[in-house]
Design a protein that fits this description.
two-stranded antiparallel ribbon; mainly alpha; 2 strands; globular; 443 residues
Length: 443
């Protein structure tokens, strides 16, 4: 039996190491020889300047007084144009930092709950449908419906949020995703399909409206120069939440027995539904806190003429994007490469659960009692986080094109290992290698 907890701990330790290597602390405590060389070069330049200074003074030929008078005049002229004092600038910067910290805290309180609700569901979607007795073909239809719904609604729902109010649509996100979680309790294909469609809409909102609100809030507060730090903090928090979500989901799934409420009933509770119930609670809190803590903001307003122009431009946006893609080989190549890699990623998302389950059943036979899908999912998320750190390290020496070829090559090798692996342990390790590549791909 594969020891998934041991592998998780090993991967977590590996992630700590590579994250430290990619951080500024590594450069602080272990400066590279290149940085030392640059420091030595700067010191030698300073020494040369000091040695040349007396020579220049000797060659002034009695013109020192004129030089000093010119310097004094220049200093006086510059003094009249001096910017505000350093104390004033420091006070202004401190005030901006305080406002930015308060804004980021408000944002993360809501956003991380939304992210948690999404990550909690990931490990057990396929397992739940399988527990209901649906075939792999039926489950594939449900998955494709969710992806298709996200694709369709994602193309325009962000614009609707800009016009109607982003906070309203974030509350709408919580309601729609909560309804999607509720549908999971029904062993009915139609209801489950509705749930997948609602989940696709919610996913579109999660990956568009939250970031738009954050940008708008920074703009209103005059804090746009700090937006990069806010996104970086949110991304790091999202990674931590994803890892924790797998562990929470694993506990929730094993808390109660999976069974119908009554004999012959199509309404189920317990088991793999536990993570969806926890997600439901997170979504309720997310909606309530968004309505209490966040101010409403909108996209840029326009006059009637500008509004009509924007509508006509929106209707032709896909057409323009199509021609731009066809006419520019770089854009076309980038689109094809991204589609192929992310296609393999979505195949992985769909197939990892049945693949590991089949191998475990083959190895254990009648002793098989299920897999800790939450722990497995957490391990994948740690690998993604480690991949992002490895990307930062590799970019110090490789060009993006070289790194991309390496990532795709290693990802292909990982898939080959998954196909030809002889055991569940080796298959799982190969899957983790692929997730590292996914983490390196996204930055």
């Amino acid at each position: 039996m594969t020891d998934y907890n041991l592998i998780f701990c090993g991967v977590l330790l590996f992630n700590v190491v590579v994250t430290f290597r990619a951080s500024s602390y590594w450069k602080k405590y272990f400066p590279s020889s290149a940085n030392t060389g640059e420091s030595n070069n700067s010191k030698s330049d300073d020494t040369d300047a000091e040695e040349l200074k007396p020579l220049s003074d000797k060659n002034n030929d009695g013109k020192d007084s004129f030089h000093d008078n010119d310097k004094a005049a220049t200093d006086l002229e510059r003094g009249s144009r001096d910017p505000p004092s350093a104390d004033v600038n420091a006070a202004s910067e401190n005030a901006a930092n305080i406002r930015h910290t308060q804004l980021v805290r408000k944002y993360l309180t809501v956003y991380l709950l939304a992210a948690l609700s999404d990550w909690l569901q990931g490990p057990y979607v396929y397992a739940l449908y399988d527990a209901y007795g649906y075939s792999q073909h039926d489950i594939a239809i449900l998955f494709v419906a969710g992806f298709g719904s996200s694709m369709v609604f994602g193309s325009f729902i962000g614009g609707m949020a800009d016009q109607c109010g982003r906070r309203k649509f974030i509350i709408l996100f919580a309601v729609i995703y909560a309804l999607s979680c509720m549908t999971k309790h029904f062993k009915n294909f139609t209801i489950l399909m509705i749930g997948r469609l609602l989940g696709g809409v919610a996913t579109s909102l999660l990956f568009s409206v939250f970031e738009a609100w954050l940008i708008g809030a920074h703009g209103s507060a005059g804090l746009l120069p700090h937006i990069g730090k806010a996104f970086s903090t949110a991304q790091y928090g999202n990674s931590i939440v994803a890892i924790l979500a797998g562990q929470i989901a694993n506990k929730a799934a094993s808390h109660a027995e999976f069974k119908p409420t009554s004999e012959g009933s199509g309404f189920y509770t317990g088991g793999y539904l536990g993570p969806f119930d926890v997600s439901l609670v997170a979504l309720i809190l997310c909606g309530l806190l968004a309505s209490a803590l966040w101010e409403e903001n909108y996209g840029e307003t326009a006059s009637n003429d500008d509004s009509e122009k924007s509508k006509s431009s929106a209707s032709g946006a896909l057409k323009k994007a199509y021609y731009a893609t066809i006419q520019n080989p770089d854009i076309l190549s980038c689109g094809i490469i991204s589609s192929l890699f992310e296609g393999s990623m979505y195949i992985f998302v769909f197939m990892w659960t049945p693949a590991l389950t089949a191998l475990a059943k083959e190895e254990l036979g009648d002793k098989f009692k299920g897999l800790p899908f939450g722990v497995i999912f957490s391990t994948f998320m740690v690998c993604c986080m480690a991949g992002s750190s490895i990307f930062s390290i590799a970019m110090e020496k490789l060009k993006p094109e070289q790194l991309a070829v390496t990532v795709f090559g290693v990802a292909a090798f990982a898939f080959a290992m998954i196909i030809f692996a002889a055991s569940a342990t080796s298959t799982f390790l190969a899957m983790n290698l692929f997730e590292v590549c996914v983490g390196m791909y996204f930055p």
